[in-house]
Amino acid sequence: xxxxxxxxxxxxxxxxxxxxxxxxxxxxxxxxxxxxxxxxxxxxxxxxxxxxxxxxxxxxxxxxxxxxxxxxxxxxxxxxxxxxxxxxxxxxxxxxxxxxxxxxxxxxxxxxxxxxxxxxxxxxxxxxxxxxxxxxxxxxxxxxxxxxxxxxxxxxxxxxxxxxxxxxxxxxxxxxxxxxxxxxxxxxxxxxxxxxxxxxxxxxxxxxxxxxxxxxxxxxx
Length: 221
Fold this sequence. Notes:
The protein is of the alpha+beta class. The protein contains 6 helices and 5 strands; from the N terminus they run ααααβββββαα. Mean pLDDT is 75; it is low at 62-67 and 211-221.
């Protein structure tokens, strides 16, 4: 007869194999790098938001009236968006690298964990394709300055003034006062009336009561 009650003894993890100095160094270096990166990104964001000082010199003041009034607001919005994006990307990268080194110093085999995270990331990517598309479109719209706050734009859905912009949603107030929320990934074609030399159509002839009378008189003659 075989005994079914015998089990292998459970051995606790070898605490002596944990590299405590390496663990503390990994956490400290990760925090230090994140603080330095945040400081650098904040400085770059402020410089971009402030704009160039080239046209602020005394002998270039004559060009000031030609500059748009909303340029500063748009520049600040673009700088904040790009700065927030950089902070998110850098924060995720530093956190992932720091966690890998922490697990390594804890004597944990991270290969199965990385495999599981990779499979989970692929699943999330397939499930959030539309969300990722909206975010990527919002990034390129902001970087390329396709339109900004205060611009009058024309899309396939609406013509109106841009009130706010985000990485996922653009809020537009239409000419009739309705507020539209457009997903950036769904904006396939957009016309910016504020950037070009847009000329509104003349409504004098269309509103004139005699506009349709002349053809009738000629036809009667």
